[in-house]
Amino acid sequence: MKKFQVFGAETPEESQRERNHKALARRVAAEGFVLLKNDGVLPLIPCKIALYGPGSRRTIKGGSGSGDVHERHSVTIEEGLKNAGFSFPTTKWMDNFESKYQADIAAWRAQVEKSIEHYKPWDMIKMFDTIHEQPMPYPSCTPVLNEDLTDETDTAVYVLSRQAGEGTDRCVEKGDYLFSDIEIESLKLLSAHYKKLILILNCGSVMDLSILDETRIDAVLFFGQGGMEGGNSLADVLTGVTTPCGRLTDTWAYRYTDYPAADTFGHRNGNLIDEEYSEGIYVGYRWFSTKNILPRYPFGYGLSYTSFSCTADSIEQKDTKITVKVSVNNTGSQYSGKETVQIYLQKPDGAIDHEYCALATFGKTPLLAPGESCTLDLTFDLAELATFDELRSAFVLEAGSYTLLMGENVREAALCGTVALDKERIVEQVSFIGTNELLDDCKYVPSAKAAAALERLTDREKIMLVTGGGVSISAYNNVMGAAGSTTTKLLKKGVPNIVLADGPAGLNVTPATATQRDGTPRFPGGLPDEWKWGWLLKMEKLVTAKPGKGRFAYRYMTAWPSATLLAQTWDTALLHEVGCAIGREMVEIGVSVWLAPGMNIHRNPLCGRNFEYYSEDPLISGKMAAAITNGVQSVGGVGVSIKHFCCNNQEDNRIHVSSNVSQRALREIYLRAFYIAVTEGKPWTVMSCYNRVNGTYVCNSPDLLTHVLRKEWGYNGLVMSDWTATCQCSHAQAINAGNDLIMPGGREVQKALALDLQNGVLDKRALNMSASRVLDLIFKSYTCKDF
């Protein structure tokens, strides 16, 4: 039996797979951008333009933390516009900005090095904790001055940018959710000098756009985080090569205070222990439409270079199943384009209050030439939008007339028909979430291979199996830079390890390694940049790969547009295609589980990780997650881990905060997205979150992990913890509750579980069940096909 295997390209040249996936990433980003405003200045013919703003040359492709990707090259907005034939009469502002940024980075690096100079090799984890507490500063904005202006063009583009990432929420402050004074004054100067001014928003989530009320800006485009081809994608949209067709999956308010729970979200009220979801089901557009609050840009909004007409030709009802046949016509005269048809449902007045309307179904047309038409059959089941009656603990469809609304966005949706139910329907009777009684999971039957392997293992080895393998330098399957793996210690028992890799924008791994004869890695070109700190720098020569020594593997992955941008395509077929591409990359480099998609609800625009998630709406979130999951898993031998289950809707104190949410909101909003993803996508794994729900840590909750997920929804896959999540509660109770795999694992976790098994705290039946699920996960992985 071989001791290890290596996956990845053997030479560093760009592969055909890379070229194919770049083209797809370029197309996806262009279709996910949302044109928010256009006073006739777009599209542009390639010409001379004046380019400003931090995101012009330092374009943010994606978020920091687990959402990062180490791609071969990312196309900046400056580069993409240049590729499309634009030229810049002056680059003085960008040159000065870049010089300042390099100086800022040098000063930051010197400061960090000073703070870690006393750490020794045995303090490596502490050293990197200290480094991570001092994140690299994003370029601070410098003002546009009169000497930065040019008279050689009448068109200026300003790229406003914001970085976001794991572990920290945003603030309603200048330079964050609000524009800084420098940005405001710069835009005013540009507006006064140039006839045409285009604002590009290179940020992960919603921004305050009060600047539009006081300064002339002719066009605004939400670029978001466009991935590695974002610069080229933007050029495609600005020039009309691609007609914009993205639609918002969030509500953009006039004022932050218009959002529900604006003053109590996260740090806003100083309470990071208990987060009260007092708005209930009224999240996002449900709040704005019910309270009749006018947003700046409503959910579903987006402009195009052409126009469409949509007509509901017929509505067919079979019991609770509804089909709406819609004719869509491109009524423009010049540009081809795609249209998104959105159908919303209004429920009848009854004993329970309802939101004004809720998204029921949607569809995306193919590319339609001017004058061309198509027909979409949009289907849904009224039961999917049933109201949760807390008194009866049941999903209920009340009797009466249900109104269907259709439009370009939620605000403009108008009557297109009605359907009716003659009597009340109890769709599903469920249990109260909060008892947290341990439950037997009697439906799961392990495969014959897993059952046979389990028989060969001792209790100690089963405990090793249900805890992660930590960061192993040498293993049967090893992909450097990946987030983790299953245990590497059972190969002689016929159980190999598998590799799990972040993140939501693509596979986050080290791009190049040279595996030595003993299985240890070396690095072509020296240490990866993220490791070049402190005492490790002195080791660089020792770990640098020598020509011809070892098995070289190159793993340049695609950095895809952020999840929010993917969702803004409203195109499940396109996301399936992206999933297939990610699955192919997983097979190529030896990753078995992709720790994505992230699909928590955008409860508030300040969540620092919203860019990793899809929407404020559970239907969009669930459908997009299911589509990308089905794409990945259709490749064969690879799977996903949908996360973070559930109510992980803020980053500040995410490890301890309790999301205190009503049964109805939990069922209709926060669990519904996961329900759709689980039942339609059948993900290999689900990741439990750090936070508590109504006081109980989710990774210790049998109600959520066994009763809801497995008994109610019929899920047969594996549940893993987020990294170190069980350290805040109980490792043993996590296994008992149905959390099968504790990540990232380690000896201390194994010791605690062994003691708890001996003392009767860890249920041996639960241990066997979890170990069986881990074995099934391993044996269906492509990298373990020889076992």
Please characterize this protein's 3D structure.
With about 775 residues, the protein is an alpha/beta fold. It folds into 4 domains: about 35-245, 3-Layer(aba) Sandwich (Rossmann fold); about 295-385 and about 395-430, Sandwich (Immunoglobulin-like); about 455-510 and about 560-785, Glycoside hydrolase, family 3, N-terminal domain (TIM Barrel); about 510-555, no CATH class. Helix 9 crosses helix 20 (about 765-780). The longest helix is centred in the N-terminal third of the chain and has 25 residues, at about 90-115. The protein is globular, with a radius of gyration of 26 Å.
Keyword list:
27% helix, TIM Barrel, 787 residues, 4 domains, 18% strand, five-stranded mixed sheet, 20 helices
In short:
The chain has 787 residues and is of the alpha/beta class. The chain is 27% helix and 18% strand.
Taking Cα atoms only, what radius of gyration do you get, to the nearest Å? 26 Å
- How much of the sequence is in beta strands? 15-25%
For the secondary structure, the number of strands is: 28
CATH architecture of the largest domain: Alpha-Beta Barrel
Fourth-tier CATH superfamily name of the largest domain: Glycoside hydrolase, family 3, N-terminal domain
What is the count of structural domains?
4
What is the strand arrangement across the widest sheet? 17-18-22-23-25-28
**What characterizes the major β-sheet?**
6 strands, mixed
Overall SS class: alpha/beta
Shape: globular
In CATH's first tier, which class of the largest domain applies?
Alpha Beta
Annotation field: number of helices: 20
For the termini, the CA-CA separation is: 10 Å
pLDDT average, as an integer? 95
Helix content: 25-40%
Low-confidence stretches: none
